[in-house]
TrEMBL record:
PROSITE patterns: SUBTILASE (PS51892), SUBTILASE_ASP (PS00136), SUBTILASE_HIS (PS00137), SUBTILASE_SER (PS00138). The gene is mycP. Residues 47-59 have a biased composition (Basic and acidic residues). The lineage of its organism: Bacteria, Bacillati, Actinomycetota, Actinomycetes, Pseudonocardiales. One of its GO terms (biological process) is proteolysis. This is Type VII secretion-associated serine protease mycosin.
Amino acid sequence: MARGRLTARLLAAALLAVLVPAAPVANAQPDDATDPTPAGPQPPPLGDDRAVPDDDGKPDLTYTRTDEGCVQALDGSVELEDKAWGQDVLQFGELQQFATGAGQTVAVIDTGVNAHDYLAGRLKGGGDYVADGGDGLDDCDGHGTQVAGIIAAKPTSDNIGFRGIAPDATILSIRQSSEYYEFKPPEGSNLPEKPSAGSLKTLAKAVVSAANQGADVINMSVDSCRPATAPITEDERNLQRALRYAVEDQNAVVVSSAGNIPSKDCPDQNSSDPTNPDYIVTPPWFSEYVLSVAAVDKQGNPADFSMHGPWVSVAAPGTEIISLNPGDPRGLVNVTAGAGGQQPSLIRGTSFAAPYVAGLAALVAERFEKLGEPLTAKQIMDRIKATAAHPAAEGGRNVQIGYGMVDPVAALTRMLPSEEGIPADEAIEVPFQMPPPHERNWVPVQVAVIGAAGGVGLLLLTLFIVHTVRRQRRDPSDMM
């Protein structure tokens, strides 16, 4: 009996714990809520500094090609049995009814882009910061060509499953870096050797150049990493100026890869504490002007190589990549030959997640222009973040994948209150009150009990009388 009473009390306590909230405030999370200022060390704001970096169109140093020659992907005889899984996840089959990237120019600031049949008529040279006088249409590394393919490849036959997310967009190629060019200082010079071409200085130039050439979207699958304890450098500050110029003055959407680990300057994963990262990655650090893209794998998990950070905006497929073959203008490839005779490796990295988002930005820009409701660069960036599949985290955002995997169909079709002039939802106080105690009216029970008792009493009295009468009645034979 005591155990039964204890169980009943525990059940009652558990029920109260469920029914009574810990606090009287309920937060409403609007669909298009995006926090433009993530936690963590923030770059110093530019304020009234409206300076624009000078762009002379030239490399920062005189680079020469290394003796290794250029890396090319495997030859075109490779048979690819399956199309890129990212195409199904991002619903490429549904996108073409809304937009194809027509009329949009996506600048690819990378290692250059080689000519390819799947980019025919839509590839333009935009400059070269590796080889003085180049036009950006020479890709020694193969990296930029594969990035461009994810954005805008358009096969010559419907029997080919692979295609870019924005197959009618124009690619503006600007070569800014290469691992197959080096700087050797002249004798007597105090300058250090540089084993590869590219720097934050030339990246800032390239961003300004792309913006001035009318790019609607700028993709930068290049990153620089350093310890978070170091102060901002002048080259970083200059890149920050270039990014603001591109976004605010030239209305270009800027997309960057989130960065990979391990790398030379960032050998370990970043801290999981959004307020205290160990490393800072640029351009992603300048999140006010940049959509930085993390990589997820085929199972939807953050890729193990994808750099975390409070500035990460969204995520996209970054493993098991298929794209254009830099060494075959009619071929596709899913591996890249390694430098220095290394074995070929699968194509993967945040470098290849970013172009999915860059192509999506081109689709969004085209879609709303056709609807007569053109969006600014920042509105496009906010739309992509707001319509992503938010992770189960506070504010719908975390350091691994930002606001989550992009959802292209939602980005192209969903109504956002902020774009319609509808104010965002606010947290409201919803006090919880227990209902008043129910005081039972015992009168009916009392009447029923009294009535029942009276009936029982009357029945007993009747039985007693009948029994008495029977005992007093005697059989005449008993009298004899």
